[in-house]
Amino acid sequence: xxxxxxxxxxxxxxxxxxxEHFDATIAHDQRxxxxxxxxxxxxKTLVRQIAQHAHxxxxxxxxxxxxxxxxxxxxxxxxxxxxxxxxxxxxxxxYSAAETLGADRADLTDRLxxxxxxxxxxxxxxxxxxxxxxxxxxFVDGAAICNQVPLCRSSYGPYARAMVRICKEESFxxxxxxxxxxxxxxxxxxQREMVQDAVNRWWWPSLMMxxxxxxxxxxxxxxxxxxxxxxxxxxxxQRFVDMTVPQAExxxxxxxxxxxxxxxxxxxxxxxxxxxxxxMQVIKGGGPCNxxxxxxxxxxxEDGAWVREAATAHAAKRxxxxxxx
Length: 325
Ligand SMILES: [Fe+2]
Ligand SMILES: [Fe+2]
Description:
This protein has helices spanning 2-9, 14-27, 40-59, 61-65, 74-99, 105-113, 131-148, 157-185, 189-208, 220-225, 233-251, 276-286, 290-303, 305-321, and strands spanning 261-263, 268-270. By secondary structure, it is mostly helical.
């Protein structure tokens, strides 16, 4: 009897206590911070997700960056320059957030360059006209907002806080895209055609940004249980469609989906099924621009080697001059 009593009262194993503390933190919607114990699976999932997000911001500079030298006016050039620069900043915050989990930025870059980590499928499509800059702002930054606003409440503190600032900037990006398209729609017939053509090309790839359908997304359930992710892929996709349809009407463009219609019973829009085979193809590296994007990223990394070497040499010299107390 005494033995039983002792067994019940003795403190739980340290790992069990830590696990319970972690579970309680998640259950109470509080934040996990870098100093806190966390399960290895949680840490790995976060590193993978944050790194993939960071890589997407950096690779995502390319499709629009191609238009900086060809922007139609100084004003449009300055706006686009600032937007692309913001995306670089987003990548840097996110690599920093990954570093709080013990990841190494140089290692993450190697993983991207060697094709061991992914970036968003959307950036493997070409930008064929300046209207693409507007449509990327409207659709791609719009989809990023749908995905990322809930991440401001993600259970991992540094990721959630990075998202707050990033989302503010993304909403600026979306507005600048929409404003550009509004201007083009008030222009000539051929400008209106450019906008419609860009909408036709970017609509389906934008819906694919939310990932495969829920029943084909095996990691989602665990990420939602850990409150890293707050809504399923299909729910986020639906939100994006519901948000975008009235904006398309106002703009005067047609979204290229014959099945798109308001469903009064559900209070949401019904819409067609994206081509999931195409998504798989792009994820595997077979999209129209995968090779070009990776080649560009690799050569930028190689071209920047001297900067990294110089910075390392400078840091070493300073350390020699000012030995830390
Ligand atoms: Fe961004
Ligand atoms: Fe953006």
